[in-house]
Amino acid sequence: MAAVIILLPISATAQSPRGGGGGNITLGSSLVADSSNSTWKSPSGEFAFGFRQVYPGGYLLAIWFDEMPERTIIWSANRNNLAQQGSTIQLSSDGRFELNDPTAGRRIWAASPATSGVAYAAMLDSGDFVLAANSSAVTWRSFDEPTDTLLPSQTLDQGGSIFASFSDTNHSIGRFKLIMQADGNLVMYTINFPNEDHVYAYFATNTVGTGFRLIFNQSGYIYLTARNGTILNTLSSNGAPTSLLHQRLTLDYDGVLRHYVYPKFANATGGRPMAWSVNEFEPSNICLRIASDRGFGACGYNSVCTLGTDQRPNCVCPFAYSPIDPNDRMSGCKQDFVPQSCDRNSSREDADVFSFDDMPNTDWQTSDYASFQSVSEDSCRQDCLSDCFCAVAIYSDNGCYKKKTPLSNGKTDSSIGGKALVKFSRRNDTATDPNPSGRNSRKSSNRSALIRMGSVLLGSSVFLNLILLSFVLFLVFCYRARKSKTAIRAYTAVPAGVVSMRSFGFDELKEATNGFNEEIGSGACSTVYKGTFNEGENVTFVAVKKLTKIAEEADQEFKAEVSSISRTNHKNLVRLLGYCDEGQNRLLVYEYMPNGSLANFLFENPSPPNWYRRVQIAFATARGLCYLHEECTTQIIHCDIKPQNVLLDGSHVAKISDFGLAKLLRADQTRTNTGIRGTRGYVAPEWFRNMPITVKVDVYSYGILLLELLCCRRNFLPDVEDEKVVLADWAYDCYRGGAIRSLAADDEVAADDLKRFERFVMVAIWCVQEDPALRPHMKRVMHMLEGSVQVPAPPDPTSFATPI
């Protein structure tokens, strides 16, 4: 049963439209769409109402955050009908509020007050623009007509909806919709663009008959309630007061609902540039969530959706396809070749010039028109090649599934398996090889080039021939050496499930790391270096982990880490981008985490790091562990959770790293016996008692880490007084003695949030119980941290009590 949580007020009417430094907007006031950029601002100056030029001659009547360089738009009146230069928004003397075209006086947009008698307007500090009567009663407000964004103190009642924008720069209605349905279900839909009717529900709270209102309150919590106020679903639980953060909930143009935060004070960023960062988002992987038999999927027809390292969907075209509109990445893809003819006279000739590009772990769901079981891959290829309708064949589990264009719901993910065979024509002599590692056709081309070069030599002078022959022999040697190296790599035992990852050459990584020059971390069996890849104008930073143990042990760790990480896909896990398995060299390439480890963040700062940032890190780490334990295809026990293995990205989002010690469990296993793993101080007691190991060892380590996050000190400090040496023991003593405040030390912000601080301490004590049966699972840990379930009084960690 969901608990009722008492949170900060949510009513937008809590702020009076009268008064404030911005003043009220009197009858007869107006703004013109021109270069003067005049606006009506809120009393604090945080928000502005006025015209924004979105392209030459085209103006949007909008509300935006006015105190940040991005000037992020959060509402617009005419998103589908831009105003020309010279258009006017006027609050007329009779209370009408209208946007009119400058030439014929055509009305572009008008507010519709619930009652007559509008006396003035006001831009409020909440971000709400209102029309009000003399009694201060609000007759119309922008909060009641949201576009793609909700703000703190705003609600979405039954029947209310928001539409994603078309793109980052085009604010017209796009392809996705969020609606609080009359039946109580909060749902995200793809729409029948350019119409607005629903096509496919890719996210839902499943609260039919109970859901009533979506609330974004002043404390930064976003949740769905029943009519009696009971919380049914929490969309974002990492809240922080609006006094510290600008916040918004936006349905982005890619269909993902994101809770963004932006520090109001520069000192909250530790000297880093101030920018929007994502606090929470749904769904976690939109590429996999959309599987409709109608519509364009997450990326457009013939396109493929993949989840990027920033957890945002990327839309890419298959080989020999290109974007329909280069300025709209979701426009879909078109064929860059003449499709295979169904004319009998030309079909045989066509079959000779068509080939396939292999795309592992890729599928276009719902596009099948024929399928065959218990067939070989060669027969699948041949059948598609001889079928003029077949544009793609999916070969998976000895099955062949033929598809024709337009292809919809394209996606690439390690969970898909199999491979897509994308048919293309060689007649156009496409310049780009679909497989950078080389194909038979490219090899033939290389051989032909060598033959042509040899014929040139025969017609030249003897001396010149000798020089050129030496050069040709050198090329042949290089070609064979590369071929040999490729063959060695092809036959190296790489764990199954990583075929979609990039295979790097050792020399390639050596060059990217400048000869393994910049070390950013090290462990007992590996060293991590910073690397750089320059791809045109794009520069990508990576972390290259070089395993340094003897060959057999290195191979074991390599396989363990690649096997475990290749099965994961979560925003709070460091993403593995590729690997090198060349000769005796074992290297792993990860996304680069510019803010280093949680250990440095916590223990190297002279003053306590920002309290709300620490709270977000606690939630993020718990979410990552919850995914490993309960949501992964193969359950994973990390076995070495500690601050050094939690890394922070550019926005200080925490991600769990280093799976070298992970212990995989089969689907039918719940425990395993293995040697002691992990790091002293974070190792659960059962490791030393020859007891079966379960996911509860990670829960114990998380409890220690959570205490370190709360108190900004290490678990063990031998140079302090006896009662404070072991943090877990001291924390329980403080809790039992009613001295929780002393754990916060000099952190005044944490002390001001003492209720949450105490709840987190209680959760940590439950996690570090010596009896594994007493420790909660990570999903329950999440619920207790959020406050959606009550946290019982924890027992002494060394005693026994009823498990929760």
Question: What does it look like?
Answer:
- The protein folds into five domains: 22-144, Orthogonal Prism (Agglutinin, subunit A); 146-283, Bulb-type lectin domain (Agglutinin, subunit A, Orthogonal Prism); 304-425, Hepatocyte Growth Factor (3-Layer(bba) Sandwich), CATH 3.50.4; 502-591, 2-Layer Sandwich (Phosphorylase Kinase, domain 1); 598-786, Transferase(Phosphotransferase) domain 1 (Transferase(Phosphotransferase), domain 1), CATH 1.10.510.
- The protein has 804 residues and is of the alpha+beta class.
- The strands form 13 sheets. It has a six-stranded mixed sheet, sandwiched between helices. A five-stranded antiparallel sheet has the order 29-35-32-33-31.
- Mean pLDDT is 81; it is low at 1-16, 429-463, 480-499 and 663-678.
- Strand 43 and strand 44 (654-656) form a beta hairpin.
- It is built from 14 helices and 45 strands.
- Helix 9 (611-631) runs antiparallel to helix 10, helix 9 runs antiparallel to helix 14 and helix 11 (727-736) crosses helix 13 (754-767).
- It is found in: Membrane.
- Belongs to the protein kinase superfamily. Ser/Thr protein kinase family.
